[in-house]
Structure formats: structure tokens, C-alpha cells
Amino acid sequence: MTEPEDTLLDFPCAFPLKVMGLAGGALARTVPGIVRRHAPEFDGATMETRVSSGGKYLSLTCTIHATSRAQLDALYRDLSEHPDVKVVL
Question: What average pLDDT does the segment 35-51 reach?
Fold first, then answer.
């Protein structure tokens, strides 16, 4: 299947996703499961975490092996719909 011309990515590729939400919740436990639904080879141990300077927010960076634009779109949609997730970049 050929990718549409509206993407600047060459698939497959390593693709970092940044997910942000409130610290202190289940975000760090929930996000790896959502990511693995779309990228089964994702290893949660590689996820990078960072707490904001005030300690209120948590940022998670998950780098996946992206295979298509459709995969990324579905992953962004699932992450964005989760109530613990505030922003996905």
C-alpha cells in the first residue's frame, strides 16, 4: 500500500510521541498499554518521563516503530480520547 502524498515521513521510521497529563495519576501506567495496541513491539521500559518544574504535570515520550500514517492517526486519536491525557504531540 502506498502512503498518501500529504505526509513528510518515510515509513517505516522511529517516531517519538510526547504525551502530557497531570502528575500523580495513572498516566505512566496507562499510556504504554494504549501505545502497544497500535505498536505491539513498544517496550514500556524505553519510555522517558519528566515531571514539570512545579510537579503538576508529567510528560512521557514513547518512541515507536511507525509503519504508516493510519497507524499514527489511530494512536493519536486513542491517546487524545483518554481522560488522563491533556496533550499529545
Answer: 97
